[in-house]
Amino acid sequence: MLIYKIMRANEWAALKLKGETAGAPVDVADGYIHFSTAEQARETAAKHFAGEVGLFLAELDTDRMGDALKWEVSRGGAEFPHYYGPLTLAHVTWCQPLPLGPDGHVFPENFG
User: Fold this and answer.
1) d(CA 30, CA 27)
2) CATH (domain of 20)
3) Could you tell me the pTM of the whole model?
4) Of 25, 41, 44, nearest to 33 (Cα)?
5) How high is the pLDDT of residue 75?
6) Closest CA to 4 of 71, 89, 95, 101
């Protein structure tokens, strides 16, 4: 299964440089890395990244993540993927810019 992580430019740059990350400040504070399914990602972008420029969308394959990936109830009672470990470049299948358009963020053609 594929899941997605929206990252700010500095977060993506740090992951590329170091090869792993504990996530964004909210991830570190919560003790796990927040992800979304394809069905959840647009709402995540609108709710948590509204109006932000310089974002990236990373696609990850859950088969590469092992037992540290947990599905937990979150927003609206839906289950979201949460990762209890460092995110590494080996988890990422691709990462592309997530530009801001006139009606919100524009997701890549190969998304989902």
Assistant:
1) 5
2) 3.20.170.20
3) 0.94
4) 25
5) 72
6) 95
